[in-house]
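Reopening: structure tokens for the heme C complex, inputs below.
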Amino acid sequence: MRLNHSSIKLLSAAVVLAILLAGCGGAASTPAVPTSTPIPTYRFDTPTVPPPVATAAATMTTADQSALDPALVATGKGRYEALACGECHGPNGEGTDKGSAMSASKQTEDEFISFMRSGGTVGVSHQYSTNRLSENGGRALYQYLLSLRK
Ligand code: HEC
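Re-run output (same inputs, fresh job):
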């Protein structure tokens, strides 16, 4: 479609009218009342130190022998023998010149497990990965060691 002179005039008139109407609409509405924006204020409260929680494992440095599960202790003794711990710590954990007596250890279960996984201060020769000592095997072995803490 070709635009002739008069249709352009008509078109621009419509555009001007639209702009005016839009302008009027804006002006007619009530001016916005500025509202105050609350600025949040913060307070720092020093956290209170929680009281130390005694865990069952942490208190078992000397074992309550009656609390031990004989089946777990037997499983643990099996792991002790299979992994030849006795070569250094004695066949019954009594200790040799190559390793201390097991009754001397004060390790909690968590400390024992992480020591066996990491090798601790002894190093890689004392590292027992999960393919040799499973999660349950490690717990049972700890129960056996507890049974030696008389
Ligand atoms: C090659 C010798 C050797 C073997 C095998 C061995 N250990 Fe040890 N173990 C050591 C030495 C050395 C130490 C560090 C000094 C010490 O406590 O006698 C040690 C430390 C430990 C300790 C830390 C004691 C403590 O509270 O500080 C535990 C627990 C332990 N061994 C358990 C085991 C168990 C369980 C096995 C078998 C899975 C095992 N060891 C096998 C030599 C050995």
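The mean pLDDT is 84. Residues 112 and 135 are 12 Å apart (CA to CA). Marking as resolved unless the reporter disagrees.
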